[in-house]
Structures are given as C-alpha cells and as structure tokens.
Amino acid sequence: MTLPSDDFAYREGSLHAEGVSLTTLAEAVGTPAYVYSVAALRHRLDRYMVAFAGMDCLVAYAVKANGNLSVLSVLATAGAGADTVSEGEIHRALEAGISSDRIIFSGMGKTDAELAYALTLPGLQLNVESTPEYERLTALARARDVRPTVVIRVNPDVSAGGHAKIATGKSGDKFGVPVEEAMALYRRAQDEGAVRPVGLACHIGSQIRQVDPFGDAWRRLRQMTLALRAEGLSVDRLDLGGGLGVDYAGAGAGATPADLADLARRTVGDLVVKLAVEPGRSIVAEAGVLISRVIHVNARQDGPTFLVLDAGMNDLVRPALYDAWHDLAAINPRSGAPVAYDVVGPVCETGDTFARGRLMPPLQAGDLVAFGGAGAYAASMASEYNSRLPAAEVLVDGERWALVRPRPRLEEVLAREVRPDWI
Ligand SMILES: *Cc1c(COP(=O)(O)O)cnc(C)c1O
Which value, in Å, is the radius of gyration of the alpha carbons in the chain? Predict the structure, then answer.
C-alpha cells in the first residue's frame, strides 16, 4: 500500500489512522508500534464477502497474516471464518469467536498432538497435505473413534507468487499432494473409511497479482472433481486457497476479489460444491502501518545518508527476507527538497535495511515515519532478535483507539527464562 490511503490520510499536514493522529499514538504508546484500522479491515473483508455472495463460499481469513485477537474479532464479527496452520492459530480463531465448523486446519507438518487436538473440534476441516500425514491422521482418528472431515490439498503444479520463498504450487515445492497421488489418496481415504474425504484444496502461493495462475490451479481442481465423480466418489467441497497480492509499491491495479469470484464462477461455478477461499494478506496488509521514530540521520562522507529508525528487521522482516518494498511516509512532513535516504534499523545485520536511496522529505532525529502495508506478515513474523521488545499493537476505529497488545516490559521477557541451579 502506498501512503496516504483512504484510511491513513493527512489531516492538517499530519498523518492519521482514520480520525486518530499517529503522532498522538506514538506519544501515547511509544515506537515502534503497529496501527490497524477497523474501517480498512472491514472494507477489505467485505470485498470478498460481496464478491462471493450467493456462491455458498466460506471466506476463511488466513490467521498467519496477522493473528492479533482484536483483528481476528473484527473480522469474525464481519463474517470471516479462519484458515489456520497451527494449534496456536486454532486457539486464536476460537478465542475470537469463530466456531470450529468455520475453521480450516492447513499446514504441511502438523504434529500428532496438533492432529489429535483438531480431532476434538466438531466440523473442523482438516486439509491433508501429504500421504504420510494421511496415514498418521487415520491412525489417530481410529484410536479415538472419530471420523474427521478431510480435504486433500493438491499441488496443481503451477508457478505463481511474488517471490520464490512464497511460491507453494509448483511440483518441487514442499506443499500439497501431486495430482495423480492425490487422486489415489482420495480413493484410498474413501475405501478405508477412517476419515470423511469431502473435497479438494489448493493454495499456490502469495502476493499473486494476476488471475491466470489461479485459473490454471482451479481448472485442475475441476478436472479432478469430474474424474473422481465419474468413479462414483462424491466431491462436495473445493477450497480455492488464498494468495491474492496487494499493491505495496504503487505499481498499479492488480486482480481483485471480484476478479477471483468471476474466475471461480467460470471455472468451478457449475460443480455444485461448497467453496472456501483463504485470503490473508489482501485483507490485512493495507489495514495496518508500522510507525517508527528517527533515531538519527547519519550523512556519511563516503556516500549514503542513513536514516536510522527505531524499528528494525525484527519488527518488519519482509524487506530482509523477500527484498520486499514497503512504502514509507513522513508522519509530519517538513517542507524542503526531498533527500535520498538509505533507511535502516538498529539491528546488527546489514540485512536490517528497509530501503536504499529512498526519496523522502527531509527528516531529523525524533521525527516520525510510517511504513505502509504493514498489517500482514509484520507483527505475526516479528521476533525479539537483539533482545528488542515486541512492538505494541493499536486498533483504531473512527475517533477511538485501544492498545490491543501492549509492549511487554523487559522484566516480563526475562522472567520467561529459567536458570538451572547447577550453573
Ligand atoms: C498463507 C496461506 C494462505 C494465505 O495467503 P495470503 O497470501 O496471505 O492470502 C492461505 N492458505 C494457506 C494454506 C496458506 O498457507
């Protein structure tokens, strides 16, 4: 997302989240801090709800993009289910009020303990992502005398995704069951009867901005559905995955939820199946910013002018991990000719670089900046590297705001550790 946006706009020269001044928030909760807009969350979920209305489709928000309980509760109240990839995420979804029959459990390395937990939750959709996982699941289900609702995640062998590290749908990737093996596994699950195979799933990657790769994958699911039905097996559910990208750099319009819904109508609309989609990034990325204070400006004789921020790669790892671009705006821009900054954090790694040669209004120590597109894969991927405290999270709704995840105190962080008495 580029700043300003609809929900993060300037008022009298100062950047606000809806009706709340980011300067006021920075003073109240400290920096760095993530700030989320309720209006933006609702609006972005709504684009899916409206686009897929009338298609019997569960919009299962992918919790890993941002698992903050308040964010989840806003989305749950507005009609979202949840796509989860760990026991912890399932707990978060339930805590936010999403019932287990609206939760999908994905992930290619679920432990026995996680599968056993999932078996206790009525109606949960278990996405089986490999043959060995199927075998472990059937053993656990038999031992507990339950018959879970299972969908087989197919690897449709399509290339997609903004970066090699987030492409998941190509045959060499670790995700999903290859098409032929998935067909065999579906038949086997039906024969063995330990689980209830109800359908097929795919998820081909993330930050995908065109519809074509989705079309290739969904046509694959369609062919498989028809082939399985021709053998007399029932296929009642298709889980179409997530992965729609956002416009981090102002590159221009990409595919929208409405485009995806049209594509779904064209590719699988005639199959009479219950659908699910699993959007994460495209719901929350643009609903959040990361605010940070300038520690100082270091104009080096040998070249770059470093803008040193109090946010680091531990707060926003996407640039270090994926060479990702995040827009950066001065919260109270000063007048004057723009300056090209190398924007860095304080962490002791050269990888802790957010941008090089970024043109910004002139900035000084103590000034505030905001990273756009920081609602997804930012707080949820944060670490305490360099013993830096996790940043606070704030939710804004119109003129009101709340600290929804305070920054822990250093004593609390240290108190989690135990020293054996034999040292
Ligand atoms: C990560 C993930 C998603 C969400 O991806 P986005 O790119 O955030 O929309 C959906 N489904 C599965 C299985 C995932 O792993």
Answer: 23
